[in-house]
Fold:
Amino acid sequence: MFTLDQKAAMVAALNSAVSSRNNLWTPANLAATGTDGGTYPECAPKADFHSTADFTCSGSSVVFNDDSWGATVTNRTWSFPNGTPSTATTSTVTVTYTTPGWQSATLTVSNASGTDTKTVTKSVYVSPLGASQYTGSYSEDFESKTKIDTSWFINNLPVDINNTSAWQLTNSASYSGTNCMKLNGFFVQSPSYPLSSNAGDIDEMVTPSVDLTGVSPLYFSFRYSYASQGFKVADITESLTIYSSTNCGKSWIAFKTITGAELANAGTYGTQYTPSTGLWKSMNVTLSPSLAKSGVRFKFVYKAGPYSNNLYIDDVNIGPNTISVVGVNEVQATLNSLNVFPNPASDVATIAYHLGSKQNVDLAVYDMLGNKVMVIANQLQNEGDYTYKVSKLDFAKGMYFIRLNVNDKETTVKKFVLLD
Structure:
């Protein structure tokens, strides 16, 4: 099947010292890697575990599961300071805590080949049942680092040495003041590994506990700014979901999910996204009266997609009042959801945008001389997502501008190129 020269090239490669190729097939290496058909002792296991909850109430229980890997575990020892039981040897353990604060957990596993230990110093946070850090309402502008470090919780999932994206305080952008919270979700896919992605990465941010007893009406409000790397609406699969908990964070209920064009209010950015003052959107969510009780926590959960970018949160407000959605910033945020894809286009392109409220819309295409060559929409439109198609059947190849004018006072323009 091979020529003599091909055979000679392969033999030369196997005898080459480049990348230690001449070591791969030696008897010593085959024996060391267990690929020579012999019988070898089992490796030592690697300790790993997870718990069924990151938060719980005092007096409640949390289940720990042994996830050790690499080899069969023959001996196992758990250690739970302040927990009951404080030690265990089974693969699954139910532990009850009564001491408030962060609790540590340690797992040591072994077999005849060796021992390994894993300790998580902040394994479970225990809160007194019904206890609250704030009463009646809570507002956060993220201007105090000390307050964020002591009252908010950041959970970066999965816990991986290579997982660098996480919620963090930043002064690179803000809606008010100088700081906000940033999720550094931007990443660059490797051309060598087309499936490489942080898609599915989950990052959580948990608020302090609030006593909302008797509060009515009840709202959860915040401002956000986000741009996706996806050029198609269908590619914007990342999401931001808001949860509530009334049992100290042991279990959570989702009440709002933002995704697609609604999440990507700033449209598409192929590089690291940082919002300007005008690229923020307000979100006011009416909460269920069932949350009008003490010890309520809320959680932001961002789930990355294959085209994720950076997400920013500011001005969180929990209580009887909403935050303002009036002004140029809000209108501009709506306008900057304008997207044109693919761009350049050789046949058909899609124009997409999101309206945050009912508004008069003037959407048109202009040539390089400023002449209006096509009117796409000129009407009163309700809140929602809108898409239109343009193609080479509509006008000749060249460079054009798509202009979206809302309420005759705010305009967003996108450059668009139509090829042969």
